Amino acid sequence: MTRKEQLQSIVNKGSENETKTSQLVEEIIFIEEQLVKLKELPFIVVSSKNPGIQKATPASKQYKELLQQYNNCLRLLFRITGEMDGAEEESPLRKWLKERTGVSDHE
Fold first, then answer.
1. Could you give the CA distance from residue 47 to residue 55 in angstroms, rounded to a whole number?
2. Structural domain tally of the chain?
3. pTM above 0.85, yes or no
4. Cβ of 86: how many Cβ atoms within 10 Å?
C-alpha cells in the first residue's frame, strides 16, 4: 500500500471527504518526500578553526519550515475528516481566565 493509499483510506471514511482532501493529501505526500531528502543533508556546519563555532545550514532551516507546514497540513486534514473532534483541550490560560472572571466562551 502506497503512502497516498494509506492517507486516503484514513480520509475517505465518507465519499465527500475525498474531494475535499485530495489536494491536501498530495501536498502532505510531497512534503514528506522533501523532509526525507533534507534529513540526508547536514543541519550544522562546524568551523574547522574553532569547533565551538557552529552554524545552521540552509537545509536545517528548510527542514524546520517544511515540518511546520507538514504539521499544519495534518491538523487541517484531521479537522476536515473530523478526527480531531474534542481532541483539542482548552488552554491553561483560558481556564485560568475563566476561573478569575467567570466568563465563558459563548458570552
1. 8
2. 1
3. no
4. 6
